[in-house]
């Protein structure tokens, strides 16, 4: 007799209802990584912004400190140009009455001092010392550019020579020579810059004007009156 045996297939285990499907696990990991990366990027941006703000604040404080120093301790002061003395080096004067002409040779030696009262150096450009008569320019001497140290005084000696051709048509000079006194004017102007902390450059100007009277007989200066002015 043949007996039929039925093979039973093993039972397939059922997934528990509460078990989370595996395919979803990688998605959760990716989502968590994305949030973490965004947080780190935001923190980096915040730190960068804080660094920039702190740097700008420090620069602003440095600028304020330099500005305060520039307006107080290093506050620019006006340089002073002084004509200390005027002496007659040479004087020859004669009058040609028939031709109404004056033969006049005049040379003046002028001592000038330029004082810088600032705590920083003062640089000035090329300038000139002028000799005037009756509002006319009759002589000129150059003043070379230079630099004057802090709180220093620069003495200068210049020679002013009369340019005789400037007085050929001036009739007033005849009266002055015959009266024995010749009034002239010397004028000096110096313009430059004061550099405060090598950042702020301020333009300054100093000038001096002296009215002097020269004795024809004694060949010397009998009177001298000076005016000084400075500008920032």
Can you walk me through this structure?
The chain has 232 residues and is of the alpha+beta class. It is 24% helix and 46% strand. The chain has helices at residues 25-71, 172-179, and strands spanning 80-96, 101-115, 122-124, 127-133, 136-143, 146-148, 153-161, 181-196, 200-215, 220-231. Residues 1-7 have low confidence and may be disordered.
In brief:
The chain has 232 residues and is an alpha+beta fold. Helices cover 24% and strands 46% of the residues. The radius of gyration is 45 Å and the shape is rod-shaped.
Overview features:
single chain, 232 residues, alpha+beta, 7-stranded antiparallel sheet, 3-stranded antiparallel sheet, 10 strands, 24% helix, 46% strand, disordered N terminus
pLDDT average, as an integer?
79
Rg from C-alpha positions? 45 Å
Shape assignment: rod-shaped
Structural class: alpha+beta
Order of helices and strands: HEEEEEEEHEEE
| Number of helices in the DSSP assignment | 2
Number of strands: 10
Q: Give the percentage of residues in beta strands.
A: over 45%
Q: What is the share of helical residues?
A: 10-25%
| Low-pLDDT regions | 1-7
The CA-CA distance between the termini, in Å, is: 136 Å
Main beta sheet strand tally, sense and closure:
7 strands, antiparallel
Write the layout of secondary structure elements.
Layout: H1 25-71, E1 80-96, E2 101-115, E3 122-124, E4 127-133, E5 136-143, E6 146-148, E7 153-161, H2 172-179, E8 181-196, E9 200-215, E10 220-231
Antiparallel strand pairs: 1-2, 2-7, 3-6, 3-8, 4-5, 4-8, 8-9, 9-10
């Amino acid at each position: 007799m043949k007996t039929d045996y039925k093979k039973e297939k093993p039972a397939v285990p059922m997934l528990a209802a509460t078990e989370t499907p595996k395919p979803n696990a990688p998605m959760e990991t990716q989502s968590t990584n994305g949030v973490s990366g965004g947080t780190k990027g935001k923190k980096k941006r915040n730190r960068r912004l804080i660094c920039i703000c702190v740097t700008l604040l420090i620069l602003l404080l440095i600028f304020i400190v330099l500005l305060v120093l520039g307006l107080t301790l290093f506050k620019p002061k006006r340089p002073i140009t002084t004509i200390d003395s005027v002496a007659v080096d040479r004087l020859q004067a004669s009058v040609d009455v028939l031709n109404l002409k004056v033969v006049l040779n005049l040379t003046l030696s002028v001592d000038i001092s330029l004082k810088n009262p600032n705590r920083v150096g003062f640089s000035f450009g090329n300038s000139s010392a002028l000799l005037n008569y009756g509002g006319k320019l009759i002589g000129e001497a150059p003043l070379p550019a230079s630099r004057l140290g802090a709180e220093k005084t620069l003495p200068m000696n210049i020679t002013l020579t009369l340019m005789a051709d400037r007085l050929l048509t001036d009739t007033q000079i005849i009266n002055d020579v015959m009266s024995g006194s010749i009034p002239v004017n010397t004028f000096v102007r110096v313009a430059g810059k004061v550099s405060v902390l090598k950042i702020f450059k301020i333009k300054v100007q100093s000038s001096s004007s002296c009215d002097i009277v020269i004795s024809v007989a004694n060949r010397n200066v009998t009177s001298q009156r000076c005016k000084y002015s400075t500008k920032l």
